[in-house]
Amino acid sequence: SVKNLFAAINAARTQSLQRFLFGLGIRHIGETTAGLIARHVKDAEGFRALGIKIAAGDETAEVDLLSIDGIGGSVVSALREFFDEPHNLDVLDAVLKEVSPTPLEDVASDSPVAGKIVVFTGSLSKMTRDEAKARATSLGAKVSGSISAKTDILVAGEKAGSKLTKAQSLGVKTMTEEEWLELITAL
Question: To the nearest whole number, what is the mean pLDDT of the chain?
Answer without folding.
Answer: 88
